[in-house]
Design a protein that fits this description.
This protein starts with 11 loop residues before the first helix and ends with a strand. The longest helix has 22 residues. Helix 5 packs antiparallel against helix 6. A hairpin with a 5-residue loop joins strand 8 and strand 9. It has a five-stranded antiparallel sheet with strand order 3-2-12-11-10, sandwiched between helices. It folds into two domains: about 40 residues; about 270 residues, DD-peptidase/beta-lactamase superfamily (Beta-lactamase, 3-Layer(aba) Sandwich), CATH 3.40.710.10. With about 325 residues, the protein is an alpha+beta fold.
């Protein structure tokens, strides 16, 4: 689920009581639906509720910049000696989408739950395993696995696969993710997601299911940067979907559904595309690609944050830092 309301509490006791009520409600829900996936998530959230009573999310210290690159070409950009901002994310990376140069990072090789960033791989698997005009139905079972966030599409109608990519990537529709996997056979679909990840250098990525609800869907910030580069280089159509501000899709029986975009920066003219996510275990996650003017040139960068309390603020602070710190590389 993505972008739930943010609440604050005066005392840890009140926080614990509230989480206990949530866990209890989820246990009743799981008992009613009796799906193994939901039961596994309830167990995980029970552990989170217990930990939340005694722990607080730490604030990340400033990280050192890096000049790693995956290209032999001369670097086009250089960074001044400017301290990174304080952010809440436990892991992040800022890199050049064109050259692969890494401008800054923090714990970029530590694995984290990635939440609905998962759906970028879901979209790639759907395109490989399903024809663009394949009919995909949303079922009640698909919606029952979404933990109260089924999205804008009702169960029952069927859609062309290509049309369902919009709710999948714009509003992070979990029902669509489960429908794609079920239509292609779930085990085959999830294996394809993992194969795609590893084929694009995401060596520390492991995917358990297609929505991102599982805390066992894990990757590193470096892996997500590699995935974002792949979208930038080879999947511009899907990247464009992620920044579509609003879309209306029509089912095979002519029902129309309006799809909003929850990707935070969809109204920003500098935004190239990206994906957000949220679960209790992952906290807030995001990968966002931007165009940033640098002198007479333009840097096309991706910023990935994992384990964030406020992904929008973190990404903005890192982008602002980059904008101030970057300059054209000195020519020889």
């Amino acid at each position: 689920m993505d972008e739930p309301p943010v609440f604050s509490f005066d005392t840890r006791g009140f926080l614990f009581a509230a989480k206990a009520l949530v866990v209890g409600a989820m246990l009743l829900t799981a008992g009613h639906y009796s799906t193994p996936f939901v039961m596994a998530q309830v167990k995980a959230r029970t552990q989170v509720a217990s930990a939340a009573a005694t722990e607080e999310t730490p604030v990340v210290a400033e990280a050192a910049t890096s000049t790693e690159t995956t290209s032999d070409a001369a670097p086009r950009f250089a960074l001044g000696d400017t301290s990174l901002p304080s952010i809440s994310a436990t892991s992040f990376i800022i890199g050049d989408l064109e050259s692969g140069m890494i401008f800054a990072s923090k714990d970029a090789d530590v694995r984290h739950p990635i939440a609905s960033i998962t759906k970028l791989l879901t979209a790639l698997a759907a395109e490989e395993l399903l024809a663009s005009d394949a009919k995909v139905a949303i079922t009640l079972a698909d919606r029952r696995q979404t933990e109260g966030t089924p999205g804008s599409i009702d169960y029952g109608p069927s859609f062309a696969m290509k049309d369902l990519l919009y709710p999948l990537l714009m509003e992070s529709n979990n029902s669509v993710a489960f429908a794609f996997a079920r239509t292609a056979t779930t085990s085959v679909f999830v294996q394809k997601m993992n194969d795609i990840a590893h084929a694009h250098g995401m060596s520390n990525t492991s995917i358990e299911e297609p929505s991102g609800l599982s805390f066992n869907n894990v990757a590193t910030a470096r892996d997500i940067f590699a995935l974002t580069r792949h979208f930038f280089e080879d999947e511009q159509g899907l990247l464009d979907v992620t920044r579509t501000q609003k879309k209306t899709i029509t089912s095979t029986n002519n029902r129309r559904f309006d799809v909003p975009n929850f990707n935070v920066f969809e109204n920003d003219s500098r935004f190239i595309g990206g994906k957000i996510g949220y679960t209790d275990e992952a906290l807030r996650t995001m990968t966002a690609a931007f165009e940033v003017p640098v002198g007479n040139d333009t840097a096309r960068i991706a910023i990935v944050v994992l384990g964030s309390n406020d992904h929008e603020r973190d990404v903005k602070r890192l982008r602002d830092w980059f904008t101030k710190a970057v300059a054209p590389a000195a020519s020889e």
